[in-house]
Every structure is written in C-alpha cells, then in structure tokens.
Amino acid sequence: MAVSIRLRREGAKNRPYYKVVVADSRSPREGKFIEVIGTYDPKKPGHNSTLKVNRAEYWIAHGAQPSDTVRSLLKKNKKQDAPAPAAAIPAPAGPTPAPVTPPEASASTPEAT
C-alpha cells in the first residue's frame, strides 16, 4: 500500500481550511484516511499551521511520501519547534556587577593570640 501525507480540504466555499492527513495514495482527496497529523489555514497570516512533526517523521520513516505543500509545512514547523541555541541568546546590556566575596573569617578566629 502506497501511503502519502497530503492535505484534505475542508471549510466553506472561498474559505479553504485543510487538515494534514496520512492516507492511502489511491483514496480520493476527501476520502478515508489513516491519521490526522495537523491543520493548515492558508487565509490566516503568520504562523498558519499546526503539525505533529514527530508523527510525520514516523510515517516518512515507514515509507510515506509527503506532498510538496506538506513538505514545506514540515520544514516551517521544524524551524519553529527548534529551541534557540545558547550562543545566540544575547547578554543583558549594561555594566556587569562586581562579584561578591564573603567576609574574612580571620576576625572571628583566635589566630593572633
């Protein structure tokens, strides 16, 4: 069975909304599917998709072929899910405070007697 990861169209006329599904490649666009792994709203500005990246990678590892649009959505979602590296976090601006040293213990010890 050839499995593909593709978009399933939902929503009203002139208001498309898609679900990202894993389906048999022979089934129709709105036909039966194996699993829903995300959503995509092309009318929404900015971040307009949600995707279970780990499930998509699982299916790709098991031979599923993503469509071109799903491939680009995966790429965008992987970038947003990746944490920022520690070197890229800027240091706070301004002077750095001097290190605080503990008071000397020689005043309380009877070494001088």
Can you describe what's shown?
This protein has helices at residues 53-61, 68-81, and strands at 3-12, 15-24, 35-40, 49-51, 65-66. Strand 1 (3-12) and strand 2 form a beta hairpin. The chain is elongated and about 90 Å long. It is built from two helices and five strands. Strands 4-3-2-1-5 form a five-stranded mixed sheet. Helix content is 20%, strand content 27%. The N and C termini lie far apart (92 Å). It has a single domain (3-82), classed as S16 Ribosomal Protein, Chain: A, CATH 3.30.1320.10. With 113 residues, it is of the alpha+beta class.
For the biggest sheet, the summary is: 5 strands, mixed
Per DSSP, the total helix count is 2
Order of helices and strands: EEEEHEH
Number of domains: 1
What is the number of beta strands?
5
Task: Explain the layout of strands and helices.
Layout: E1 3-12, E2 15-24, E3 35-40, E4 49-51, H1 53-61, E5 65-66, H2 68-81
Parallel strand pairs: 1-5
Antiparallel strand pairs: 1-2, 2-3, 3-4
Overview in brief:
The protein is of the alpha+beta class and 113 residues long. Helices cover 20% and strands 27% of the residues.
Salient structural properties:
5-stranded mixed sheet, S16 Ribosomal Protein, Chain: A, elongated, 2 helices, 113 residues, single chain, 5 strands, alpha+beta
